């Protein structure tokens, strides 16, 4: 490469670049033909020349994926030299650059974890979620690198990301990444246990990581420390405050959010959303139709309650009076009351279950919120009708308990959904 082009790249002189192109319009193509070379984009990345790098990306996009003789791409060099503004430029130009493997199969995400560059790391995960599954030539995952370098803050972010990310491949990532073995046959948990990194073990326990023998963190510590299971579980429990966000557009907030402990409502919401994403469109439509028919059929109870509560009430009175005059005993009335109450309780459970299924299967849109509100109102009216009509105290208590469980479950789901939607909105806004 000509000295004039090298100097222009290092100082970021765009005018000098075009002067050289004017003199030799084939100058950049000849550079691109070489397999391993420090291109002008590599030199600009080392020097932090953002404007020159942006110009070069427009002229020669192929330079972004080319490795130099040391095995580094321009994005690797920008990250290693601490030019994070330039790193963001590369990410916005092509999110796939996060997965470009350099020396030893290390991607920019691996380097960010290794040197605990937290903000670029979070930016990489948001821009290219698939990068979390990349493995080095030594068989190391992102978790291996974080544990080996004892980068606990990076490990916290990775654990939080695996727990919360809603992606079509999320179930596969959660299954294989925590339990992946490197070239020496060690999982991330094996390494953490061998170095007695208690905080790392606590974090890995949250994603059910296992060692090479299939043992989880509690089993390993229980064997090594001779403590009972309750004491070990208490040792593994992580205590961190719940993070509140002042701005959804803040990368600092996202980092803190991912490092915070995942609450039960979030876990439940993520699990439901991942399962919904794994269901095909045809199966999803069929389930919604069936659930809708069940709701429509169950609501007929409002017009004709099973066993007719009013008839049961009259029957109970008549049987009681007959019992006084030597007729049938009160046991007959009690059996009839029990049967009607049980039948209505089963119908109520079916309605609550079907409406819950519809609410969970619908995609996250405004239409889902409207349908959820309508179904909640329908279930509430249905429950109030049965509570008023039911003449049996035991039946009233049972119906009220069922409705309370239904409401509580939906409140938990709503809270978890709000947390996950904040993460989803942030990711969508920064992609």
Automatic annotation (TrEMBL):
Pfam families: Ank_2. Keywords: Membrane, Transmembrane, Transmembrane helix. SMART domains: ANK. The chain crosses the membrane at residues 283-303, 344-362, 369-388, 394-415. InterPro entries: Ankyrin_rpt, Ankyrin_rpt-contain_sf. This is Ankyrin repeat-containing protein BDA1-like isoform X1. It comes from Herrania umbratica. The gene is LOC110419612.
């Amino acid at each position: 490469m000509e000295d004039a082009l090298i100097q222009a790249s290092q100082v970021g002189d765009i005018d000098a670049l075009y002067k050289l192109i004017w003199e030799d319009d084939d100058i950049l193509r000849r550079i691109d033909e070489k397999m391993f070379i420090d291109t002008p984009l590599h030199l600009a990345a080392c020097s932090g020349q953002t404007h020159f790098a942006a110009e070069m990306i427009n002229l020669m996009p192929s330079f972004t994926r080319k490795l130099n003789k040391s095995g580094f791409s321009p994005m690797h060099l920008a990250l290693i030299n601490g030019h994070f503004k330039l790193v963001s430029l590369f990410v916005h130009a092509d999110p796939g650059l996060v997965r470009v493997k350099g020396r030893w199969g290390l991607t920019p995400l691996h380097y960010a974890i290794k040197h605990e560059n937290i903000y670029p790391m979070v930016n990489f995960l948001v821009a290219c979620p698939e990068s979390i599954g990349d493995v080095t030539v030594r068989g190391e995952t992102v978790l291996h690198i974080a544990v080996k370098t004892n980068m606990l803050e990076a490990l916290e972010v990775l654990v939080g990301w695996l727990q919360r990310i809603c992606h079509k491949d999320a179930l596969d990532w959660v299954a294989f990444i925590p339990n992946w073995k490197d070239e020496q046959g060690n999982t991330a948990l094996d390494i953490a246990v061998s170095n007695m990194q208690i905080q790392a073990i606590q974090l890995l326990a949250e994603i059910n990581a296992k060692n090479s023998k299939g043992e989880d963190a509690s089993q390993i510590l229980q064997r090594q420390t001779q403590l009972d299971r309750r004491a070990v579980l208490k040792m593994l429990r992580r205590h961190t405050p719940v993070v509140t966000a002042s701005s959804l557009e803040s990368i600092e907030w996202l980092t803190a959010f991912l490092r915070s402990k995942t609450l039960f409502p979030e876990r439940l919401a993520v699990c439901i959303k991942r399962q919904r994403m794994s269901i095909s469109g045809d199966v999803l439509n069929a389930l919604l139709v069936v659930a809708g028919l069940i709701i429509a059929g169950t609501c007929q109870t409002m017009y004709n309650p099973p066993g007719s509560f009013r008839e049961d009430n009259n029957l109970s009175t008549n049987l009681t009076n007959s019992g006084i005059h030597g007729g049938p005993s009160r046991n007959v009335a009690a059996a009839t009351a029990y049967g009607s109450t049980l039948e209505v309780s089963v119908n109520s459970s079916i309605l609550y279950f079907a409406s819950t299924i519809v609410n969970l299967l619908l995609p996250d849109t405004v239409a889902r919120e409207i349908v959820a509100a309508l179904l909640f109102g329908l279930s509430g009216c249905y429950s109030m009708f049965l509570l008023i009509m039911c003449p049996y105290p035991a039946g009233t208590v049972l119906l009220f308990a069922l409705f309370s469980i239904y409401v509580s479950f939906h409140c938990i789901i709503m809270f978890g959904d709000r947390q996950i939607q904040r993460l989803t909105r942030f990711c969508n806004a920064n992609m």
